[in-house]
Design a protein that fits this description.
By secondary structure, this protein is an alpha/beta fold. The protein has helices at residues 25-37, 58-69, 112-118, 133-136, 139-146, 161-175, 194-210, 213-223, 229-241, 255-259; strands spanning 11-12, 47-53, 79-85, 94-97, 100-103, 106-108, 124-127, 150-156, 181-185, 190-191, 246-254, 266-276. The protein has one domain: LigB-like (Protocatechuate 4,5-dioxygenase, Chain B, 3-Layer(aba) Sandwich).
């Protein structure tokens, strides 16, 4: 969708373009294309139902995210659901931007009809000027690999297990017939210890690979192993309703590996795919 087709009053200017990722279309496209080109071909049999991708600045986690989004190349999707945590304290349990997202690559329109339908089942709070990075950081990758699509964006403030269940049920009620792509935005362990991050990430990803939503939610919460553990658990719950069969870990790393600086603060990253049976011919 072009910027000219939307009123400026309906747009959410990016608070992170030029810092978390490049601020010009040319530089942003080149960075994403470079990340994607570095990803070897991986086979994910069956139907791709969901992705897990990190949400740090692109210089840290962009290459890992590319392992998830590389799977979408050549797979057109008209609608994408992106779930994320919310790092700022806004009132409400389920938060949705009141304005269309803008990145240097253009406008990502919010699927207002789907949001209205979700609001019949869950209490949605619309935010006029949020600064949340974890949801927006996924959008340039989606724009680059998909082109035009509509977005169903939900930020989980509490990430409680009842909230995960409630949101998954609402998504299934509203979108279950279509089964659009689900994306969970989450980094992994944050700690001032490189080895602790590696060991915690290993345990968190073992729980993710099992594919059982409540088991992952409990493990990641107890380990402090994923800041978006509720978003991931909700995607697992929803994907299970849609026939998910397996979770495939595509890539894992951490900021210490990326920068070579293993002293000080380290954050873990991973990309994963959730797959179900292939659609009937």
């Amino acid at each position: 969708m072009s910027r000219e087709r939307v009123s400026p009053n309906d747009l959410r200017p990016s608070p992170i373009a030029g810092t978390w990722y490049p601020g010009t279309p040319e530089a942003l496209a080149a960075m994403i294309d470079g990340f994607l080109a570095n990803v070897p071909a991986q086979e994910v049999p069956g139907r791709l139902l969901g992705l897990v991708a990190p949400h740090a600045g692109y210089i840290y986690s962009g290459q890992t995210a590319a392992y998830a989004y590389r799977l979408l190349q050549g797979q057109p999707r008209s609608r994408v659901v992106v779930l994320s945590p919310c790092h700022d304290l806004y009132p409400g349990r389920f938060l949705v931007s009141a304005r269309h997202y803008v990145t240097p690559l253009g406008v990502v329109p919010i699927d207002e009809a789907a949001v209205e339908q979700l609001a019949a089942y869950i209490p949605i709070t619309r935010l006029e000027r949020d600064r949340e990075h974890s949801l927006e950081i996924q959008l340039p990758f989606l724009q680059r690999v998909l082109g035009d699509f509509t977005l169903v964006p939900v930020m989980l403030q509490n990430q409680s297990w009842p909230d995960c269940q409630e949101l998954a049920e609402a998504l299934d009620r509203v979108l279950g017939a279509e089964r659009p792509l689900l994306v969970a935005s989450s980094d992994l362990c944050h700690a001032h210890n490189y080895e602790q991050v590696r060991s915690t990430d290993a345990a968190t990803l073992t729980a993710l690979e099992r594919g059982e939503a409540q088991g992952f939610w409990k493990a990641a919460g107890a380990l402090h192993g994923a800041c978006g553990f509720g978003a991931v658990a909700t995607v697992l719950l929803t994907a299970h309703r849609w026939g998910a069969e397996a979770v495939q870990i595509l890539h894992r790393t951490n900021s210490g590996d990326v920068t070579g600086e293993r002293d000080g603060y380290v954050v873990g990253y991973a990309a994963a795919a959730i797959r179900g049976p292939a659609p009937a011919a």
